[in-house]
Amino acid sequence: MEYTTLGGTGLEVSRLCLGCMSFGSSDWREWVLEEEESTEIIERAIDLGINFFDTANMYSKGESERILGEALEGHREESVVATKGYFRMREDDPNSGGLSRKAIEQELAASRERLGMDTVDLYQIHRWDDDTPIETTLRALDDAVRRGHVRYIGASSMWTYQFAESLYTSDRLGLERFATMQNHYNLVYREEEREMLPFCEKEDIGVLPWSPLARGYLTRPHEEIDATARGETEEYLYEHPYREGGGREINERVAELAAEKGVTMAQIALSWLLHKDWVDAPIIGTTSVDHLEQAVEALDISLSASDIAYLEEPYEPVTVSGHS
Ligand SMILES: NC(=O)c1ccc[n+]([C@@H]2O[C@H](COP(=O)([O-])OP(=O)(O)OC[C@H]3O[C@@H](n4cnc5c(N)ncnc54)[C@H](OP(=O)(O)O)[C@@H]3O)[C@@H](O)[C@H]2O)c1
Fold first, then answer.
1. Which atom of ligand 1 is nearest to 31's Cα?
2. 183 pocket-lining for ligand 1 (C-beta < 6 Å)
3. Which of 7, 9, 141, 172 has the fewest Cβ atoms surrounding its Cβ within 10 A?
4. 84 C-alpha vs ligand 1 centroid, how far in Å?
5. How far apart are CA 314 and CA 201, in angstroms?
6. Ligand 1 mean position, distance from CA 286 (Å)
7. Residue 139 domain-assigned (yes or no)
8. How far is the CA of 266 from the centre of ligand 1 (A)?
9. 251 near 188, Cβ under 8 Å?
10. Atom 48 of ligand 1, nearest CA residue
11. Is residue 267 situated within a structural domain?
12. What average pLDDT does range 295-315 have in this prediction?
């Protein structure tokens, strides 16, 4: 396994972060694994040297956090665990979502309980909250750090101006700064290259792309996208603009290069991301040990400048997706 320093945190994390959205309960999403199979994947990830795990309170309504916490029993100290809050956890309780002080304090306490951890290494806001001033959110997060409940704070998909406002608010008030950005970035969704990624580079922010394989779109020919349970049922796979702006041709070029190099499409798509200097660790999502192992093997694939240019050439701007 390769390790990298996460932005300006000083933390050493594996170059692949294991995403835990696929672990929890199939009651939440059809393609989500139950505990036993989830644990098998987490344990294999640990064997392979992965020390970085990303979950969220909303994944399987807390089950993902619980399963991750149990699976990391005995590996807690050497692991870097990230979770998130923002989305509403209980239909009938509007304060179980958002980024008010009440929501952050209550939902962070519930996450720590499910994870079985006194301290979360990285606590991320899952989205921007238009209804809470960022100063209120940052003060609540800063208090969580001072209390020892959280080591670092991070953010996820938002506009760059909002992220910039967060950082200068922290600096102005002497509060903890967001150290990471978890954003939507892959070969068929590159809108983040305009503002967010150069901004993160300049501010020494750790970058953790989500859906690095475009939710499976970059793992098989585009005509076969519905070949898996997730491909058949996940609405986001169809809502994101992966087929637009040259997306089909990029998918075909990924297949062509994979055949030429004798590797899988998923490995080419992941390798492209790993060649980007502004990326610290893509967050990979899988329900298969074999696919997890393929992701780790992708660390050894080398793409030439002309391979990268060939993969990128058909891209055209697409509708912003992942936040509004
Ligand atoms: N912050 C946010 O708003 C946000 C949003 C979405 C996701 N996330 C995070 O990012 C993580 C990853 O997201 P994602 O699941 O959408 O990621 P992804 O890596 O883009 O897509 C995963 C899909 O690719 C397939 N796949 C992976 N490797 C493959 C291979 N070698 N061959 C064929 N298919 C392969 C998986 O199928 P198999 O299951 O069969 O392997 C799965 O259907 C999540 O777990 C979560 O932690 C965050």
1. 39
2. no
3. 172
4. 17
5. 25
6. 5
7. yes
8. 10
9. yes
10. 210
11. no
12. 98
Encoded tokens for 117 = 């951890």
Catalytic residues: 59
The answer on pLDDT for 104 being more than 90 is yes
Both tokens of 174, joined, read 């002497």
pLDDT of residue 287: 96
Task: Answer whether 0.85 is exceeded by the pTM.
Answer: yes
Q: How confident is the model at residue 232 (pLDDT cuts 50, 70, 90)?
A: confident
Q: Are 175 and 145 in contact (CB under 8 A)?
A: no
3-state class (DSSP) for residue 81: strand
> Which one of 64, 182, 215, 237 would you pick to mutate in the ligand 1 pocket, going by the greatest count of ligand atoms within 8 A of its CB?
215
Question: Mean pLDDT over residues 94-100, rounded?
Answer: 97
Give the pLDDT band (50/70/90) at residue 238.
confident
Q: If you write DSSP's letter for every residue of 205-227 in order, what string do you get? A: -EE--BSTTGGGTTSS-GGGGGG
Q: Which atom of ligand 1 is nearest to the CA of 220?
A: 33
Q: What CATH number does residue 15 fall under?
A: 3.20.20.100
Atom of ligand 1 nearest to the CA of 217: 24
Q: Provide the domain count of the chain.
A: 1
Ligand 1 centroid distance, CA of 194 (Å):
24
Tens digit of each residue's pLDDT (9 = 90 or more) over 165-191 = 999 999 999 999 999 999 999 999 999
**More confidently predicted of 324 and 32:** 32
Domain ranges, residue 31: 3-214+280-288
Residue 321 CB–ligand 1 contact under 6 Å: no
Q: Is residue 235 part of a domain?
A: no
The alpha helices in the chain, defined as continuous H runs, are 35-47, 63-71, 101-115, 134-146, 160-173, 196-203, 229-233, 235-239, 247-261, 265-274, 289-297, 305-312
- 126-162 pLDDT, tens digit per residue, is 999 999 999 999 999 999 999 999 999 999 999 999 9
